[in-house]
Amino acid sequence: MVLDPACVHRSDGRPGIDPGQCWLETVRIELTDAVIQGELPRIPAELVDGSLEYGSLRLDNVLPLPFAHDGPLTLSLTLAGAVSILTATGHSVAVAVSGEGRFLESFRA
């Protein structure tokens, strides 16, 4: 999956909470052996909500970059105009930024 653009918060503290900068970036999310449940929307689509569950952890609307996890996981996405949540289960995930980012704004706590 490619999120283009994605708003990436760069911070020395906690992303999305502590001060930092927001950049527009292209983010790639790769799941291995993905099984998708839910109605596939028209693509491209706007992502409005999401979560990633792996092990005993759940990340809501934020992913560390870069990020990789080997083991069972569930990625849940809500897309604009979708009638249901799209859910993908898989055996591993890799998340990375590709290309050049573009500065959007400073983020204050």
Report what the structure shows.
It is built from no helices and 7 strands. It is mainly beta and 109 residues long. It has one domain (2-107). Strands 1, 2, 3, 4, 5, 6 and 7 form a 7-stranded antiparallel β-sheet that branches. The relative contact order is 0.32.
The rough form would be described as globular
Q: How many discrete domains?
A: 1
Overall radius of gyration: 14 Å
Strand content: over 45%
Specify the number of helices. 0
Number of strands: 7
Helix content: under 10%
Major β-sheet annotation? 7 strands, antiparallel
Q: Which ranges are low-confidence, i.e. pLDDT below 50, for 5 or more consecutive residues?
A: none
Reading the helices and strands in chain order gives EEEEEEE
What is the distance, rounded to the nearest whole angstrom, between the alpha carbons of the first and last residues? 30 Å
Q: Which structural class best describes the helix and strand composition?
A: mainly beta
Write the layout of secondary structure elements.
Layout: E1 2-10, E2 20-32, E3 35-37, E4 47-54, E5 57-60, E6 67-79, E7 86-107
